[in-house]
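Hey, can you fold this one?
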Amino acid sequence: MPTSAERALRAPVLLPRRLPLRWRIAIAFALVSLTITGLLAAVTWQLASDFLVDKRVQGATVQAALDVRLVQNALRTPGVGGVDSLLTGLAGGQNATVAVRNDGAWTTSGRSLDPASLPDDLVALAATGTPARQRIVAGGIPVLAIALPLPIPDGVYVELAPLTELDSTLRFLSAVLVVGVGVSGLLGLSLGGWAGNRALRPLIDLRDAAARVAAGDLSARLPEYADADLAPLAATFNRTTADLDRRVRRDARFAADVSHELRSPLTTLINAVAVLRRRRAELPPTAQQALDLLDADIHRFQRMVTDLLEISRDEHLDERDLEICGVDDIVRHAVAERPGVTLELPPAVPPARVDRRRLDRVIVNLLDNADHHAGGAVRVGVDTANGAIRIEVDDAGPGVPVDMRHEVFERFARGGSAGRRDGAGGTGLGLALVARHVHAHHGRIWIEDSPAGGARVVVEIPMAPRDDT
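Sure. Predicted structure:
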């Protein structure tokens, strides 16, 4: 018997197999429609078929009763032509078959009939003086066989009334009912789909708005609904996103203000440390060690303030800053100052509509991150794939564990370098800025294993639309 842990592992596999809610609503509508119309069709079929069969049987029985009287009269008062002439008239007028058994001999008229094919129990019952009737197939067509007694030795009168028209009518009625049930099911499916879309429209709006908020677009709002149940939901969501937008903007302004305020004293500290560095030889060894630590921390602090100023800017791109340019030129310029880095460029790279400053910062930060944390970059490649320009940066480090490949793009995530006091420790904001700039360009960034053994950071930026080029 599976344990709870095994059931939990199986759950993600089974859930995707379930139909979406809108399809389940549509199918439910279709099943209800099929059930109702199917029951109505079954009742209609039963009532109509019983009525038509009863009418046909009654009519054939009455006609047979009238015809047997004529035969009885003809047997009592033989005239010109006798019974044979009468049977010919009876069979020809009704397109039926009539047969008379007299003293063991059969006389038939109308459609060809083998008297031996008549049911024995039907003929035997009529021979005893009891009228009988039965539906049979004679000559390849359905007929109603009516057997009546005659006042002669071993006398039996049999009349076969054809039921082809009745069967055709019933088949046509059944076809109409089946088609009606099928059309009703399709209409139910369509109505269910329409009703499902209408009912789920607010949820779809909520999903889309939540996705935009998760992607960083805090201006996403739900429309105002007139429905009493949906209006509070939309109002609560809009109020929450508005509060979140104000809080994020307030935090960004706070970070920007703090960074600006820190620049002046930081500049003073940098200049003071520079003066001390020039007189380092005059200081005792303990003071020299303290000066080295102070110099490293101040420069790291300077990079942190610069990154905070950058990250506090509005995340969304200004259209005025976008331009059509070659990504390969930006990459080539950034790698030119990095000796030992192999640059791989294809013969032709499609242009992209980007903010040149932000994209240049992306490449520089990736190279700096490789220098500080992964033994330096060894390769930078540019390629195209799936309508996007792909930039790859391979380093000489040990790689990034799978469980940390998403975490490294968060702010102040420094991994194994956290707590280091030298300049190689970094600020924990470089890759966060890279991810911010890439997402602002509607691109993607991720980390994978490099064929050389280290880590490979991959950036994909959409190509420029053909109309823009």
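The longest strand covers residues 141-149. Let me know if you want another pass with a different chain boundary.
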